Amino acid sequence: QVQLVESGGGLVQPGGSLRLSCAASGNFFSIYIMSWYRQAPGKQRELVATITSGGSTNYAASLEGRFTISRDNAKNTVYLQMNSLKLEDTAVYYCKARHIGADYWGQGTQVTVSA
Known about the structure:
Strand content: over 45%
């Protein structure tokens, strides 16, 4: 069982930045495939970014290079640096770990972009 705890969400003005963190339990974090998803009100959950155990990354095309996913295996933590935030980035952001074919989700952290 993998437990994930997200943090770092909050209220930010358009154009601002936030860094989300997701701390994972377990001794095998370095081999987890980690992802960030988000779900806006009334919309389906969508993939934001993924980082493999080897550090390869993939992003949703709609982000236009504004977000960066990274991981610190020594801290069992994955990050999502979000810059140039837009109103449409408002959502609950979820962390997901994939390990041996099973997916584990965090409880989510709210990001609200508002003037």
